Amino acid sequence: MPQGKPETVPEDGLTTRQRRHRPLTVVHTGTMKGKSTAAFGLALRAWSAGMPVGVFQFVKSAKWRVGEEGAFAALGQAHEASGVGAPVAWHKMGEGWSWIQRAGTETDHAADALEGWRQVQRDLAAERYGMYVLDEFTYPMKWGWVDVGEVVETLRDRPGFQHVVITGREAAPALVEAADLVVEMTKIKHPMDAGQKGQRGIEW
Amino acid sequence: MPQGKPETVPEDGLTTRQRRHRPLTVVHTGTMKGKSTAAFGLALRAWSAGMPVGVFQFVKSAKWRVGEEGAFAALGQAHEASGVGAPVAWHKMGEGWSWIQRAGTETDHAADALEGWRQVQRDLAAERYGMYVLDEFTYPMKWGWVDVGEVVETLRDRPGFQHVVITGREAAPALVEAADLVVEMTKIKHPMDAGQKGQRGIEW
To answer: pTM for the full model?
Structure first.
């Protein structure tokens, strides 16, 4: 879309300018990694545009995304020191791995995820951020810990100008339907196919 | 691959540790945007891991990626001020749009792109960065401005520990073959289909 020419013009009664300045719901899904990486790339751009960034890490353990967390901490400090960019808030919600539902701790994970979503709802109502990254948020929906219909409704009715990016595999059809932009990351080739393990600076 | 379990173990005589610490050639391709965004997400992570980052913008006009450029400038300054992360260098090579080959300026674009690649070669030889982002670099190859075989050879023979990420549509088969990791961004849904135009904080 680099030409900036829409393929169609909707009959929604909005001017181009109004349409241009509409908050977006973005979903990064698919089986390949890169979903979160791309989401943090979007957050980086939002930060540059002066939009406060709120990151909510669902499900994954705290040792993941340490790279991004450090970088965004530096960006938040740069904002405090010299006013460039915008404030950054980083929240880690879950424990354990997203693909393992450990017996005995499931209840806690579910409660944690739901409480994380409740905080997102409160922040959206308060218009606290300009860019929300709800990392791995498809899983709590998939597992029934957070109601998809409620998410769609909350996003649809959110006030002001707040972009929301949701990452994770197997995004619910209702969420895809509600989203403005959906990108699927597809694997063509991966070094682990050739026996290579993850490494610092690339995988985390 | 979050479990960190390779599907196969190659018979290359390397230990797991040696294989783990191997510089990667990564290609982000496909028709959907998000290729560069994801590349800058990787660069963000590399920065956090203390790897000097070198960005080379091929082809696109200087008004693109201003968001990322500003954010990485802040990260570079954070490194200078407090030692976190790593140094950042940002180079803009081309003028004009990647999908328009303007009559009369083609020669300059071709020469600019080739000179950009020559600088990348010099920097690789000098082991200047730990992470190279060659943004939109598939196009100079596609248009014959930079020889694909030479790129593959240079990347294959590069010294030390330097990751290279290349973005752009229609990556050459030889490049895909030579890459360790190839991700294709696929469009499922895009707001411009509904008549929306690009906007600050999302598109740039």
So the answer is: 0.76
